[in-house]
Amino acid sequence: MSGNFKTPNSSALAVVLLMLGVVLMRPSSVVAREHDPCQFFPNNTVIRDPDDCSRGLTCINFESVVTKNCTGSKAFFDKDKKDCVASLSDHSLCQISCVNATGTFVQDPKTCYGYYYCQDESWARHGTCPDTYHFDFATQSCIYSHVSNCTVKELNFCAIVKDGEKFNDPSSCEKYFVCKKGKLNNESCKDTYYDAVKGECVQKSKVDCANHPVPDKLCNKKSNVYVADGATCRGRFYCRAMATNYDTNPTWSQCPENRFFSEKHQACVEPLLSDCTHDRCESRNKTFVVSPTKGCRHYLHCVNGISEGEYPCGNYFFDEEAQACTTRIIEYPVCAA
Fold first, then answer.
1. How confident is the model at residue 207 (pLDDT cuts 50, 70, 90)?
2. For residue 153, what is the DSSP state?
3. pTM of the full predicted structure?
4. Is residue 317 exposed (0-12), middle (13-18) or buried (19+ Cβ within 10 Å)?
5. Distance separating alpha carbons of residues 194 and 207, to the nearest angstrom
6. Are residues 131 and 19 in contact, defined by beta-carbon separation less than 8 angstroms?
7. Is 89 exposed, middle or buried (0-12, 13-18, 19+ CB in 10 A)?
8. Which residue in 192, 236, 311, 325 has the most C-beta neighbors within 10 A?
9. pLDDT tens digit string along 71-117?
10. How far is residue 80's CA from residue 77's CA, in Å, rounded to a whole number?
11. Which residues form a coiled coil (predicted)?
């Protein structure tokens, strides 16, 4: 098997390299090929090319980089060993037969749009049809997908990545996937969010994510009002009035930079008017901001809109406007209680 490509009816169709399509909300279903498989994996994760069993990919900034092309006696890329091997323990998606098929094209078992050209009985060259096309064995060509009889195949992520490697579940900020014994498992961070770049659970404010989990019964007995998202100082859910029961799918949005959401005012307000206890450095253009710690005697050091540590003023109070500790009594809403 080889990573080289040959396309049926090549005068009319272009070769498409490394084009995999997946549903962004659930990376278990393939529906198109405009999305790179590495969009789910943290930096430096090594996976097998979902479209080519002879090729290894390394994920860098959510894009695939070809780092292994396996040929000859070691024609397969092993996702566990992360190297070229002579055979795989599971050939269900990678093994095709070119016996009595020399000079013809055969279907790729992994996809509707993939194919192999049998250069001889022991050498198959892989290729893919362009977007909106499927490979048709009967006509030995790429045909429009809407006239194809092929059923869209499901991508098994655990067939291309090593067990134990975490990867992103875009459906919610705290969720991620991990393969265990070849089975896809959905797991969640506890009181933190999953960082898709680092592949680990981190402080919520350090993750740029809009799919905040909706707390259970958030909108119960609430209609046409905004409710804090429970994770950020700017974020809010809008609870719509429903004919029956309550809104179980509220819309998330956030206040502009340098403004925090206030449930009391139902508006975006100056941060010093807000009692939000989440990361108060969020989107701020200040170097130091008051800490939620009771007494208003502590402050946070902000770096690029994220808190990098809390520091005390001792027996003094922290004056956010003056950016300094002071003897003047300070009573900001967030720390006055």
1. very high
2. P
3. 0.72
4. buried
5. 7
6. yes
7. exposed
8. 236
9. 888 988 999 999 999 888 776 677 778 889 999 999 888 788 888 89
10. 9
11. none
Q: Concatenate the DSSP letters of all residues of 74-137 into one string.
A: S-EEETTTTEEES--S--TTT----TT-TTSEEE-TT-SSEEEEEEETTEEEEEEPPTTEEEET
Burial of 32 (0-12, 13-18, 19+ CB in 10 A): middle
Determine what percent of the chain is predicted with pLDDT higher than 70.
Answer: 88
Instruction: Write the CA distances from 110 to 152, 155, 160, 252, 303, integer angstroms.
Output: 10, 8, 12, 37, 46
Q: DSSP of 172-223, one letter per residue?
A: STTEEEEEETTEEEEEE-SSSEEETTTTEEE-GGGS--S-PPPPTTTTTT--
Q: For residue 71, which of 61, 89, 56, 93 has the smallest C-alpha distance? A: 56
Chain segment 264-309, per-residue pLDDT in tens: 999 999 999 999 999 999 999 999 999 999 999 999 999 999 999 9
pLDDT of residue 124: 77
So what's the pLDDT on residue 4? Answer: 33
131's CB contacts (< 8 A; 6+ apart) are 16, 19, 32, 33, 34
DSSP string, 14-70: ----S-B---SS-TT----SSB-GGGGS-TT-EEE-TT-TTEEEEEETTEEEEEEE-
- Quote the CA–CA distance of 123 and 1 in Å, as a whole number: 5
Bridge partners, 200 (sequence order): 195
CA dihedral (185, 186, 189, 190) positive or negative: negative
Distance (Å, whole) CA 251 – CA 74: 52
Q: CA 150, CA 111: separation in Å to the nearest integer?
A: 9
